[in-house]
Amino acid sequence: MQTRKKKRFFPLFVSFILVFFIPLLVPEVGLSASITLEDVIRMALVNNKQILDSQANLKIAQLNLERAEKLFGSPQISLNFNPWRGYYDEKKNFESSAQFKIGGAIKFSGETDISLNYEGAYDYESGNYDDFYSLELHQDLFQDRSLSPSAIELYNAHKSVEKARLDLEQIQKEIILTTVKSFYEILEISDSLNLVKKKIVLNQEKLEETIRKKESGLVGQLDILEAKIELEENTKQLSKLENQLALAKDQFYHSIGAEKDSLLIFSLLQEKKLREKVEKLLVKEVTEEIILSQSEFKKARWTIDEKRLELSKKEKDTSPNWSLSIGYTSKKLTPEGITSGEWQANVGVSYTLFDAGRAKLLIETAQIDLEKAERNFENLKEDVQFNLYSQRDALKEFLSQLNLLKLRREQARLRGQLAKEQFALGVISNQQLKEFQLQQMELENSYQLALCSLLTSYLSYGTSLQMELDIGEIVGK
Question: Of 120, 155, 257, 348, which is the most exposed, with the fewest CB atoms less than 10 Å away?
Answer without folding.
Answer: 348
